[in-house]
Amino acid sequence: MRGAALLLLLIVATPAVANTPLPSQRLANTELPDPAQEARARGLMETLRCLVCQGQSIADSDAAMAGDMRALVRQRVAAGEESGAIRSWLVSRYGDYVSYDPPLSRATWPLYLAPIALLLIGVALARVSFRRRR
Amino acid sequence: MIAEAGLVALWLAAALALLQFALGALALRTGREEAMLGIRRVAVAQGLLASVAMACLIAVFAASDMSVKLVVENSHSAKPMLYKIAGAWGNHEGSMLLWVTILGLAGGAVAMLEHRLEERTLAATLGAQALIAAGFYAFLLIASNPFARLWPAPADGLGLNPLLQDPGLAFHPPTLYIGYVGLSVAFSFAVGALVTRDVGAVFAKAMRPWVLGAWIFLTLGITAGSYWAYYELGWGGWWFWDPVENASLMPWLAATALLHSVTVLATRDGLRAWTVMLAVVAFSMSMIGTFLVRSGILTSVHAFAVDPTRGAFILALLLIYIGGALALFALRVGTVRQGTTFELLSREGGLVLNNLLLTVILGIVLIGTLYPLVAAGFGVQLSIGAPFFNKAAGPIALALVIAMAAGPLIRWRRDDGQAVLAQLTYPTAAACFSGAGLVVLAGWIGLLPLLGLALSAGLAVASVLPLVGRNLRRTPMFTWGMVVAHLGIAVSLAGMACDAAFTTERLVAVRPGEPVRVGPFSVTLVGIAPVLGENWSGLEGRLIATRDDDTMVLRPQQRFFANPPTTTSETAIRTMLDGQLYTVLGAADGQGRWQLRLWWKPWVTLIWLGGALIALGGALSLIGRVARDRRAALREIWA
Amino acid sequence: MSNNRLLWLPLAGFLVLVVIVAVAMWRPADRTVRSALVGHPMPAVALQPIVPGKPGIEPGRFARGRPRLVNIFASWCIPCAAEAPQLLRLKAMGVPIDAIAVKDTTGAVQDFLARYGDPYDAIGSDPASAVQFALGSSGVPETFIVDGEGKIIDQHVGDIRADEVDALAARVKALP
């Protein structure tokens, strides 16, 4: 499954890009002292896309940039910023691409309509199988 | 030499596939018995030759024959033998060969084992199977020869990605492939039945064991893949709604729906067109999923070069097979007499509801997976992931659980609403009590986890009710199968809900000797020591975890591989009766502290235990069905 | 009944899917993640200097009437070294270039400038990628074109190639 993806990815990806000599930031990989804030940060991180891995949220990526973004989210949560505000700040920088939870918009309404439409089509199809009641 | 032998076997198998198709056409046209006999033998021989080719590929990988290009690109002589062998299918060409080998073997097995289906339908089925195989043989021979040589041969290979050097993963792709390709049999049966307009109970009974078999492997493959991602990726997640996972989930959803509709067709001769459609869709999803993953158009930014020739080739094959089958469906299914219709409140009605909900989930997953692609076509970049899938598919899945609890308690043909409600008393009570109990004991744990746990309790009770009041020794094996599989869903759902509700996470940087509290455990990093593996070196943390009087040692590692140069984190997981302690060693912070990621995940193992139960239920059903068929066949002979 | 025509719907649906996939395969969508700030004012950022004798980046620096390039780079990034000659040529052509050094150290940047040349008027240090995020940048190297009023005109993702230098210089010079 995911293995196959990684396989594809890593067969071709030779590590040509070096990495920073600086150690990763403290908040990239360690939690906030306040459990409630950490839970809020975690919830937000799970819905933000890692920009350099693209198939993962920043909550479960080992990429350095994902770590930096986790640190950013934790700092802002610790500073008392609302999750929605942090998300919109990132969206205003990177577009909807950075959020795994796209807002209802002109580009996404067919997506959000699809489940309901499918359900209605399904019910219409299934009716054929049932005996008519008089 | 071995490589050339493999190539010859592949060419011969391709030729036999064409012959098999021609014989199928001849048998259909003329009804000659020689053609029928011939087609069975050719089908078996084709499967064997494909296996020979696969065996040759495994042999060159095992011998690290560095004159074969594929070995150079995907293997290394210093790799453990298990991963050398697994390397044979851990790449594009090898996995396509494995795919077509299973396809050939499945066709051969149908030819040998199937005695119930009308001969003309069987001929059409084997002809369709041969046509599919021929296309993939052509793809291998023209665009993806796995046996191509490299001259001059390099001294050593490039290696296999260390993440994939894991026993679980070595066998994960073959398991999933058996499931995917096993569905090809259902597809060919459907095409065969459409050609001869022979859709009915006999067709359903003939198809059912194959669907069951493929479904068991798919279930195992998905379960194992989920567990692999869980312990290998090191962030505690077990399902990511990643396109590659979705590609394996879609055929499973279709096959699950098919499994239930085929029962309606076999028992009540209803849902004819729908069952044929699902049989086509299930294998189509396998092919589309594999194509999407293999072509790399969905997966990643890391420029997996989409070779346009290969992509176009496979897309053309998909167009011919799936398009052809759907066109045949449109042309023919109108002439297939409509099956029986049902009362709304009946077992059949329940199964229709099951099919409806499963298909809607399938549609949601498909649309959600492809939507970013469509949006990109219009110049919009967006991401669709867990939040969308959970919101859209979650409620429907919970409705499905309710349907699943009630369905087996409803009689075939017609039932009385009062009676069904009476049957549902205990399950409803179980759901309400467990839900209320949870709120009292654990507080508010969130709507979805609460519903998940309550419904899983209800489903668990409901799924064993069909056994109540029966003589258990005389209960048919396939009833046991259904009970166990439904129970498996309840168990798995409980695991998912527990993971969502009760997991505790600690991400900390500690000096050796500082205890960290995670859930009921106190975890202390005692020391860090270097370790050496067969083809890696690494650092191993020694963690001591204590809960009450219970003390245990965990050893998570950081591994450094040389070929290709990569660092991986090896999680250390301790499984206990009531959950798992999951630990990962991170980097040092340069001031004497080490990063640790610790999770206490109560009851999380139920997720995969449930998956295993589901597969076990499938296996019991399969055994039960096959045994009953055997007895029926024997009775016929005696009569 | 129009039931027979409905039977062609699955095929139609499948063909739509094939078209989607075929288009995606032959015209792979641009997967570069671009900054959504293009067309908007440069955020007011303040960055400490990273090498002695060269200013960092103070807020308001970009709204002083001179269009310029802002190059996001790092000494540990290989394409950044490959890009250096192009930046030197731009500098020689009179294009002012400021830089943001991502997650870097003074010593490493000094070595980098000594080895590959120094086209920069100012270098600000971004030790935690914070400014990178503020600009909507997703990697190194990237170059933002900023006009004299401090508005981001465009973003160049990846290293600037030799054949892009002239056009880029002309573009910056044409800006108000």
From TrEMBL, chain A:
One of its GO terms (molecular function) is metal ion binding. CDD domains: CcmH_N. Gene3D superfamilies: Cytochrome C biogenesis protein (1.10.8.640). The chain crosses the membrane at residues 109-130. GO terms for cellular component: plasma membrane. Residues 1-18 form the signal peptide. One of its GO terms (biological process) is cytochrome complex assembly. The keyword Metal-binding applies. It comes from the Bacteria. Residues 10-134 form the CcmH/CycL/Ccl2/NrfF N-terminal domain. Possible subunit of a heme lyase. This is Cytochrome c-type biogenesis protein. It comes from Sphingomonas aerophila.
TrEMBL record, chain B:
It is a multi-pass membrane protein. It comes from Sphingomonas aerophila. GO terms for molecular function: heme binding; heme transmembrane transporter activity. The keyword Transmembrane applies. Residues 315-625 form the Cytochrome c-type biogenesis protein CcmF C-terminal domain. This is Cytochrome c-type biogenesis protein CcmF. GO terms for cellular component: plasma membrane. Residues 89-295 form the Cytochrome c assembly protein domain. InterPro entries: CcmF_C (IPR032523), Cyt_c_assembly (IPR002541), Cyt_c_biogenesis (IPR003567), Cyt_c_biogenesis_CcmF (IPR003568). Keywords: Cell inner membrane, Cell membrane, Cytochrome c-type biogenesis, Membrane, Transmembrane, Transmembrane helix. Required for the biogenesis of c-type cytochromes. Possible subunit of a heme lyase.
UniProtKB/TrEMBL annotation, chain C:
One of its GO terms (biological process) is cytochrome complex assembly. InterPro entries: Redoxin, Thioredoxin-like_sf, Thioredoxin_domain, Thioredoxin_ResA/DsbE_sf. The keyword Disulfide bond applies. It holds the Pfam family Redoxin. Gene3D superfamilies: Glutaredoxin (3.40.30.10). GO terms for molecular function: oxidoreductase activity. The keyword Disulfide bond applies. It is found in: Cell envelope. Keywords: Cytochrome c-type biogenesis, Disulfide bond, Membrane, Redox-active center, Transmembrane, Transmembrane helix. The chain crosses the membrane at residues 6-26. This is Cytochrome c biogenesis protein CcmG/thiol:disulfide interchange protein DsbE. It comes from Sphingomonas aerophila.
